[in-house]
Amino acid sequence: MRRAVLSPAQSSSSSPTLPTYSSSSHSPSSPTSSYSPKLSTIAICILLLLNVLIWSNRLMTQRHHNANHHVEVHPTGYASVDASINALEERYEDVIQKAEDAISQSRIVRNWGDHSNKAVEHANEALGHHTKAEGIRDELLAQRSALPPPPPSPPSPPASSEPLLPAKLVKPSSWFNGGNTNTKHLAIGMAQGINDAQLCVFVASLRKFSPASESSIVLFMDEVSPKAQEILDKNAATAIVFNKREIKMGDMHPSTYRWPMITDYINDNQRSIDMVLLADVRDMAFQGDPFSIVTRPGLYVFNGVESMTIGQDGWNGGWVKDCFGNGVFQQLYDKKIICSGVSLGTIDSILSYLDLMASTMGTPSFAQCERNGVDQGVHNVLIHTDKLTGSIYKYDQMSGPVANMQAKVMSLTSDFRVVNNANGDVPIMHQYDRYETLMTHLFKLYVDWDIHAESSGEGDCKGYTIKENVEAFKGRCDLSHESGGTVEECCTICNNKGSCKGFTHIRSGCWLKSCGDVNPDQMLSVPGATGGWTG
């Protein structure tokens, strides 16, 4: 295994400097819930209606929120209201989250006959939060509409010919693949902040179908734990270690600054590469050789969610509109969403694609629309507007060789195979963490150490058994959902509820349980989740 450490060289003083930009926008990516209460027809109608109201309102606000960030480029007449608008946006997001939490509590009622009044109470609570959110939204719109038209914006500066990411970084000797000119396939991606178990699933499942004699694995990582080092060594993978604080545009999202880093590496090593897999590492696994998909020269891309078009989807449409304008947005309105998390191709086609991705995102003007996920907007514009040279092969989710699991088109069989509608196993499973049973299966298959550290609680958690990376109560004895940023807070909340005997803590929330008995055989492996119980 070759581990390289990336450090920055002195950059030219003439290099453009990007303004700091941040946004709360992100694409939803939480695993699909497997709660399945038997709800009455009336309850189902209530919940469906509330879902439509909440999510449609969120999409409207997302577009409004994105537009407001453009205020930063206008003169100070607009800056005077930015603080109040930002405060209102934070209030809006807070009440929307409360509404979603209330809906979640309705969903997890397992016995409708015994808990119908409670479920209706939660539904009414969600509706109240939604009504409050509408009022905040109207206040936002009123403040913005009261402003005079903005003065004309100054002409955009010419695009810099120099990439704004680590083109000028000092590259270690192993970066150049030892001068090897024997061509191999390459799997490459960003693995910043990755869980060791997720890293193991990616590299071990890939090595099962693509041995080191045929392919290289190169991952950009911000740190390498001892366990990660062991995993990389065992699977003949290379880590390129970097410090995001020392690279240009390091304040942007990893989904943005990964592209010039990947582009630089492949440009420098193109003589030793024949085809490339560009991969989202954190949530990708393999059940076949991914490089078998590439049968002729070109770029291979794969649909994401197919139930709506780019224009119909608030996230993808917002990325395109904010970065490329309304004209391009209208041009792509009826186009299919193509996922930027997985692409393959032969070396010439991949280089052409990467050069355009990196140069498009490596300009000062792009910083005004940059945020998590916006690279998928660039990806779709390049593909749907014929900016790329060479052949492009597009695959859908019905019969294609890559499963983007969030699309919920391909099937998961009882023996944990992911198959398309032709009943064929697909080589690549992307977004496998949307299915917790599949994720648990993959961890059991490839992770050869215990990731579920168990301990006795202390302080407010005294008397609890605490177990990491598990959902121990899925679908059982649900009591309520409360906000809680830490496991200790969940213990405190549970202690103050007489009927609470356990909880699951995940994503700043405590799912309280009325039972404390657990069955190890029924536990699900969920990275980032922690179970606690008193039984």
From TrEMBL:
Residues 1-36, 144-164 are annotated as: Disordered. It comes from the Eukaryota. The lineage of its organism: Eukaryota, Sar, Stramenopiles, Ochrophyta, Bolidophyceae. Residues 147-160 have a biased composition (Pro residues). Residues 78-105 form a coiled coil. Residues 11-36 have a biased composition (Low complexity). This is Apple domain-containing protein. Keywords: Coiled coil.
